[in-house]
Amino acid sequence: MAPDDARLHALLDKLEIHEVLTRYARGIDRRDWELVRSCYHEDAIDDHGAYSGDVEGFIAWVAERHAGIEQSMHFLGNTLIELDGDVAFAETYLTTYAHETRRGSPTQYAHSGCRYVDRLERRDNGPWKFAERHVVFEFSHVCDDTTGRERHGVREIALRSCDDLVYRIRGG
């Protein structure tokens, strides 16, 4: 492969990997569990600290965990992707914001800083997917809701489902 061809191939691989990262974030924030599932190989593992295990167990755990979260936003930052043939290692910094309501407790806002440490694989010339995902927590801050969303005059509130604007504008 010519040097320019190899660089272009690497760039396209990194773009595809970055799209896996962003599809995962959309899937979590919209509670689109099929989209989340599509980011993982069937035999992948996920270590989120409170949960560590296979993909189906992770999706069941995160779906239950997010049942009480009214709003969620994963904001991806610095991402370093290192390629080694059909294996890639990615470190992605992120901040998460969640608006959570629990029975018997005041509404809370949570803000966390984390890093995803991922091993992705492209198998049999298929798409890049997670083979292994770990979450490293840097900080977490939780506070009671004292401001209220209503005062901000927001017209389009994010929906934690496939009814969110991003799906409606795409037509499905």
Structural write-up:
The protein is α+β, with helices and mostly antiparallel strands. The chain is built from four helices and six strands, in the order H-H-E-E-H-E-E-E-E-H. Helix content is 28%, strand content 42%. Residues 148-154 have low confidence and may be disordered. Strands 2-1-6-5-4-3 form a six-stranded mixed β-sheet. The chain has helices spanning 3-29, 33-37, 55-65, 165-170; strands at 40-47, 52-54, 69-84, 87-100, 108-122, 128-144. Strand 4 (87-100) and strand 5 form a beta hairpin.
Structural class: alpha+beta
In what range is the share of β-strand residues?
35-45%
Instruction: Tell me the total number of β-strands.
Output: 6
Low-confidence stretches: 148-154
Query: How many strands, what sense, and barrel or not for the largest sheet?
Result: 6 strands, mixed
Give the strand order, joined by hyphens, for the main sheet: 2-1-6-5-4-3
Overview features:
28% helix, globular, 172 residues, 6-stranded mixed β-sheet, alpha+beta
In short, what is this structure?
28% of the residues lie in helices and 42% in strands. It is of the alpha+beta class.
Helices and strands, with pairings:
Elements: H1 3-29, H2 33-37, E1 40-47, E2 52-54, H3 55-65, E3 69-84, E4 87-100, E5 108-122, E6 128-144, H4 165-170
Parallel strand pairs: 1-6
Antiparallel strand pairs: 1-2, 3-4, 4-5, 5-6
